[in-house]
Amino acid sequence: MHSPLIRKRCLCVLVALTFLGVGVNSLQAQNRVLDSLKAELRNHPEKADEIATAIFGLAAPLLSSNPQLAINYTDEILAFQKNIKNKNIPAAAYRVKGISYLNLSQFSEALASLHKALEIDEAIESDFGQAGDLNTIGLVYMTQSKFPQALQYYLRALPRAEKLNNEYDVNAIRTNIAVVYTELGDYVQAMKNYETSLAIFRKNKHIEGETNTLTNIGIVHFKNNNLPEAIRYSTMALKLADSVGDKRSQGRENGNLSGYYNRMGQHNLALQYGLKAVAINEAISSIKSLGFNQQNVSAAYLKMGELKLAKQYGLGAFKIGNELGVTEIKKEASLGLSEVYEAMSIPDSALFYYKLFTVFSDSISNDNNKQEVTRMSMKYEFDKTEEVYKQKQLLTNEQLKQQQLELALSASQFQQVEQLRRLQEVQLQNEKLINEENEKQLIIAQNNEKLQANKVSALSQQQKLDQLELKQLWLYGVLALVVLLSVLAYLLNLYRVRRLKHKNEIQFREAQQLAIQLKHENQLSESELKAIRSQMNPHFIFNVLNSIESYIMDNDKNTASRLVQKFASLSRLILENSTKSLVTADKEWKALMLYTGLEAVRYNNSFTYSFMVDEALQLKTLFLPPMLIQPLIENAILHGVMGDRKADAHIEVTLKKNADSLRITVIDNGIGIENSHKITRKPISVKEKSIGLPSIKERIDMINLQKHTTIATFTISAGLDNRGTVATITLPLLYANRES
Q: Has this prediction a pTM greater than 0.70?
């Protein structure tokens, strides 16, 4: 995005007002000033010019930071413009209003306001106002990539600015013309203009002009595929914008850097700068820039594998392109969305957006073909105007030199006559001086004899004094050297002590952190080992093998074979999962189903069970801690349904996704936790103590120590009417593209 220069000085004369407060920094304070000015206008309508100028003073500083408020203030001025005698004021108000609309990307409204300003400035023959109006109209067209129209207005603005003999105004317009050179592909000529402009802006300490020129130089390097230089100049521009708090330039440069880093393949930096640009341009309502920023962010997220975010920002960019009618944004967004949907394995949407990309590309290509002849003729006209301007400059310089030569010749003749007259006067004075000099020489000769004697005496005394001062200087030098060495030794020792102290503190903190890390890893290992022991306890293995033996003895080979297969699969999954801190949810879910099926067969299918998964979840893309849920199912069987021996005993295991967490629920319709202690009869193999619950709580604490955005929880409560038990575990969402 090119950065043209906008004239911020919109009034020729600013009137000093005694009733205008100084240092208005807040919106509330500005509104109080506006109310007081409107009250002053009602009481003193003859002060319309002074009051309009004061309101203008509120509007002008808001051009970039709050353009909508600047428009509101200018509307206040235009409401009583008929009472304003100095027509420069309403012209300036229309000009500020047009620039504000330009900053809001409302181009038709900007052109309407600027043409009204131009109409007034032409009527009062204000070269200053016309130069500003024409230059800003050119900016509006250039922002819309309508370069022929932009150049037309720049060339009209240039001679009016030259008449004012203001170096900055002429340089600002010529910098904007250099942007047109860039779009024509004449990068050499564009770079010459930019370098000249940069030197002038730096000489005048004009931060905004320097910032915009650095931006444009970076764009030329980008178009020449010199990305390191493009990033260097854009970074310099961003630092200048940060130093003065220029939000619009900050948003522009963060967006440019995002595009440059995307092109270099450094997508983390591209995302960082892109998100900054989105936040700034949203705050200042720079809609067109926001469209390019969102596409840069989408491209970075796509390369980083964050497909949902890539899709979100890509759709946002496409929407802005449609609203503004900017084909370039729609083209880039369509191609980006096609790549996103292809990565998401949604071929229909990918094909749809690729077709749109082809349509927009053809449209831009056709427009470029139509504009090629216009661009060539435009370049010819511009070069011709440049040549005429240079010839005029040379002619003016020659005329000026001729006038200076004539003036120098006249002055030389006058000086010769004057020198002759002065020479005669000097000769008369010289004769008088010679006589007086002879008399003085006699007096001087007498005085010299006395002076010579005094000099001999003074020289002797001076030699003694010099020797004494030399000894004092040596003494002071030695003392100063001793003091300096003492101070240096003290400072060196102090530095070494502080350095050693700092090094010891760092080593102590590192030792503490290492101890905490080792303790955490040890606790996690012990917790996982307890879970393995709980899941593969000998009693369960013994009972399953007994069941298999029983079916073999009963000659039920099919059932025995299925049990062996399930037990083997379960054993393999448990051994595989036990080596990892996190496993994919599909493997853990399969292990749970195998375990529950084995327990049902072991208890002669005296209970039923069901496993339900949220349709929105893809188990292969999620991670779960292994062997965390199995103890809950085992407790539901042993202490729940088998403790009650109900005919309709049932266990339900569900897996659901909340906003930013995963919820696992194990529900049984057994006797319930409130009544479990009342059972006098215990089923065979049922343990007194709930299995694995301390281990589950310990592992939940370990998960929370890892500082996820969502806190893991574990709760057990009674079911409806105190029948049955509900055990719930809530875990943070851990997707499969994260390291386990």
A: no
